[in-house]
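hey m, so remember when u said the tokens were messed up on ur end? i reran from scratch. heres the input so u can diff it against urs
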Amino acid sequence: MLDQLLQYDTDLFVYLNNLGTTSWDGFWLFVTEKYASIPLYLVLLFLVFKKFHWKGTLLVLVLVALMITATDQLANLFKYVLFQRPRPCRVPELQDHIRIVATSCGRFGYFSAHAASSMATAVFVGLLLRAKYKYLAFILLFWAALIAYSRVYLGVHYPLDILTGMVFGGSIGFGFYRLQGWAHARFIS
């Protein structure tokens, strides 16, 4: 059963990865670059500041740092300790069947830290600001999905890596949203 699931995952990866063309490679390399999201982060920081002012914004920044650390370390635990599933760009049998666009390729890929951290951020900030900006959460979820898909496009993650990362990231983002509400009520209000 597990072998069949992994084969479906590989087949879907090969299909999705081969949808790419050289004319789009630069776009997807840009999307996956962590510094490409800085303008979005600055806008979100401004919106958070407008709603929560200095003390509330400081709390949000601390929680975001902890949340990103949590998603990253959980992904590393899964990748390097629990599963050690090689990234598709490291599988010799796939080399003639896929496009590897990424400039580097780590060893293990299950699950995607990019997908997890972007989804955690989207859920956390989207929920924090939903009352004032009702469409922001959808924009952030779309942004997180773009980042997640970029990992498949570039040849460094399977779809299951992405899906798992998004589920864990969304769950962690929701948990930190609840933590923020509790902390804000106790320490800021």
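this time it looks ok to me. Residues 41-188 form one domain. if urs says something different then somethings off w ur setup not the seq
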